[in-house]
Design goal:
cytoplasm; 13 helices; EC 2.5.1.19; UDP-n-acetylglucosamine1-carboxyvinyl-transferase, Chain; binds shikimate-3-phosphate; aromatic amino acid biosynthesis; four-stranded mixed β-sheet; alpha/beta; Enolpyruvate_Tfrase_sf
Length: 442
């Protein structure tokens, strides 16, 4: 049950005994950004089916339109892009605004750095302006890029003077698809080969899509290394975007913890670099079946059927973290409803997401009565203590907002969630869909 309060900024969530029905999962955010970017850089026409219409991909589209790419009106059915060719982006007349989107800013910096003779200024909202950019700025500078910004180039607003780049072999200290993708995109316009080695494998959507657009990519997953050969040309493609497993995760957890649930989640991307959440939930005892597994446009997908099941605590750490990085807030909710202790470690990256997600979940789950200990790189959650409705806050972070809605559905008494509307960043229909599957709209 959901209601908005008089300020219309807070959502009142009342508990329900279960969720039932079918949910078509909206397009993958990572793949949507990449399709818009590669379509803009390619020669000829790109079509995108299933684009995510959240605020983040809208920011990417606005930035690339400002640099000359012809991108049709955004809709889920069909987006058409007339690309302008690699290295051909125009100097924008104004500052490029990445909004709340780290992926937009970090990947775009790699693209802009090699656009010789053109100047770009890049900014974002308050959250993005406080997130570390040195992780991409440092290696781009090693390639020869000229980038300036606050805190020695770590914080936006950033200025980029495009120039010529040379390939490097970069050993990234963080397992980050944004860092890897930024450097691969820079490598398209660099002289020679650009290689990235990561400490653990992160999502590989860029590699898959670059290859499909005609770039020369060499991946060695054993060595956690991927390389791109500079000077490849990109040709427009027809891209089909699968549903986002990170968005499906909210339903997987809600469907598991609410006792009378059965949900069919349609069209979920099942790329193996993203399916850590499935493995962990199954390890915790969740009842999740994959149906109609298939592959579309180089990405595996399927439908997921989740039925309620008792969960038990587990340990989430190590190389698995990058495969479920965005799902940790909602897994913390699952942990609060599981028997026993759940330990999350090696997840310090969560502190530099749209909010400090470790602090946010410790604080807000604590308000609901969960017993959570915060560590520098994780959380320890004593599950099985019934949650009580309370006043909680999204920290203006879309994944915190949706995770807290799921927790509130399983709590006793109603919860008031401030800042719930930021869910639109990655899942514009989340609240209406929740209304439908709780039966509160009949
Ligand atoms: C993303 C990579 C991840 C993820 C983000 C999207 C991407 O970030 O958290 O939501 O599309 O490449 P990091 O690369 O910083 O881990």
């Amino acid at each position: 049950m959901l209601q908005t309060d008089s300020s219309a900024r807070a959502l009142i969530v009342s508990p329900v005994s279960g969720l039932r029905g079918q949910v078509r999962i909206p397009g993958d955010k990572s793949i949507s950004h990449r399709a818009l970017m590669l379509g803009s850089l390619a020669e000829g026409e790109t079509t995108i089916q299933g684009l995510l219409l959240g605020e983040d991909p809208r920011s990417t589209a606005a930035c690339f339109r400002a640099m000359g790419a012809e991108i049709s009106e955004l809709n889920t059915d069909w987006v058409r892009i007339q690309g302008i060719g690699l290295g051909q982006l125009q100097e924008p007349m104004d500052v490029l605004n990445a909004g709340n989107s780290g992926t937009t800013m970090r990947l775009m910096l790699g693209i802009l750095a090699g656009h010789a003779g053109r100047f770009f200024a890049v900014t974002g909202d308050g959250s993005l302006r406080s997130r570390p950019m040195r992780r991409v700025v440092d290696p781009l500078r090693l390639m020869g890029a000229q980038i300036w910004g606050r805190a020695g180039g770590n914080l936006a607003p950033l200025a980029v003077q495009g120039g010529s780049l040379k390939g490097i072999h970069y050993h990234s200290p963080v397992a980050s698809a944004q860092v890897k993708s930024c450097l691969l995109l820079a490598g398209l316009l660099a002289e020679g080969t650009t290689q990235v080695t990561e400490p653990a494998l992160s999502r590989d959507h860029s590699e898959r899509m670059l290859r499909a657009f005609g770039a020369e990519i060499k991946a060695d997953p054993e060595e956690k290394t991927v390389a791109v050969v500079g000077g490849s040309r990109l040709r427009g493609q027809a891209v089909t975007v699968p549903g986002d497993i990170s968005s499906a995760a909210f339903w997987l957890v809600a469907g598991s913890i609410l006792p009378e649930s059965e949900l069919l989640l349609e069209n979920v991307g099942l790329n193996p670099t993203r399916t850590g959440v499935l493995e962990v939930l199954r390890e915790m005892g969740a009842d999740i079946q994959i149906e109609n597994a298939r592959e579309i446009a180089g990405e595996p997908l399927g439908n997921l059927r989740v039925r309620s099941a008792p969960l038990r605590g587990c340990t989430i750490a190590g190389d698995r973290i990058p495969t479920l990085i965005d799902e940790i807030p909602v897994l913390a909710v699952a942990a609060a409803f599981a028997e026993g202790v759940t330990v999350i470690r090696d997840a310090a990256e969560l502190r530099v997401k749209e909010s400090d997600r470790l602090a946010a979940m410790a604080q807000e789950l604590g308000r609901l009565g969960a017993r959570v200990r915060e560590h520098p790189d994780g959380l320890e959650i004593q599950g099985g203590i019934p949650l009580q409705g309370a006043e909680v806050d999204s920290h203006e972070d879309h994944r915190i907002a949706m995770s807290l809605m799921v927790a509130a559905l399983g709590a006793q008494g109603s919860t008031t969630l401030a800042g719930a509307d930021c869910a639109r960043i990655s899942y514009p229909d989340f609240i209406p869909t929740l209304q439908r599957v709780t039966g509160s709209l009949g």
